[in-house]
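chain below, 83 aa
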Amino acid sequence: MTEEKSIGKISHYYDKIGVGIIELAGGLKTGDTIKVKGKDTDFEQVIDSMQIEHAQVEKAKKGDVIGVKMNQKVKEGDEVYLK
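prediction:
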């Protein structure tokens, strides 16, 4: 089993469009698998696409704030791990 590394937190969730805003504490790129974990949240998903300021990006770095289409509902404060 690989050690999970926290790479950010959900800072906002847009319910209508299913997009989670992640404040990154580590790098992330499309194709990576993330795990979102919180009080009521626990799922994994592959990053198909992400955006910074509504622009499509292939990768993001520590300190970036990205928008990701989520497979399930997430909540503010949920931890995001890189698998």
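Strands lie at 5-14, 19-24, 28-29, 33-37, 42-46, 50-52, 55-57, 59-60, 65-69, 79-82. The two ends are 10 Å apart (CA to CA).
thats it, cya
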